[in-house]
Amino acid sequence: MKISFHGAARSVTGSRHLIQAGSSRLLLDCGMFQGRRDQAAKLNRHLGFDPKSLTAVCLSHAHIDHSGILPVLAREGYSGSVYMTDATADLTNILLADSARIQQSDCRYVNKRERRRGKDRITPFYSLSDVQTIAQQFSRTRYGTPVQVAPNLNVQFHDAGHILGSAAIWVQHRQRGQSRSLLFSGRPGAGQYAHSPRPPATSALRCAGD
């Protein structure tokens, strides 16, 4: 099991963590980097991996710094499922649509100012159409229910006590009679795991986002 970090590493925004387990590639969160406009543009347009290469995506919760670049995945060719809890799916639909509208409004304002300086226009990271496309790929799951997202790769969502629907994600990979596990905390809250049994693990790595 190999892990690479494409956001929220030495930072607290833009959570994106890629797990390679055998031939499967699982992305945990796909958040928007929130910061200075130039830096945000670079990090949100260049993800650091090919969306078409992903096997599956799991979302810990709906906050934009964890979910805000999901529509870019669909626009760039990801056609698989995005696994999350029911409540997270409902909230993410609302937040992503709002994010698309804010980007459009922000771009209109900036471009009006930049045209006076003779600079190039900027464009939104994604459109409402991209939001609608990725929303069709949401796969809803319940706390504590194992879900097979790829051959030999299971995930299970556990109540993280952060916001409505938030989850810590337990990932288990089995291969050649061996099992390795990872617990992705997403964003721990005061009530973490209060309503779910602690997930079993042969070995665990806890990765904290914002």
CATH-defined superfamily: Ribonuclease Z/Hydroxyacylglutathione hydrolase-like
- Please state how the strands of the largest beta sheet are arranged side by side: 1-2-3-4-5-6
How far is the first residue's CA from the last residue's CA? Answer: 23 Å
Average pLDDT score: 84
CATH A-level architecture:
4-Layer Sandwich
Binned, the helix content reads: 25-40%
Shape: elongated
The number of helical runs is: 5
CATH class category: Alpha Beta
Fraction in beta strands: 25-35%
Give me the strand/helix succession. Answer: EEEHEHHEHHEEEEEE
Instruction: Indicate the radius of gyration in whole angstroms.
Output: 17 Å
Given helix and strand content, the structural type is alpha/beta
Q: CATH topology, which one?
A: Metallo-beta-lactamase, Chain A
Flag low-confidence runs.
189-210
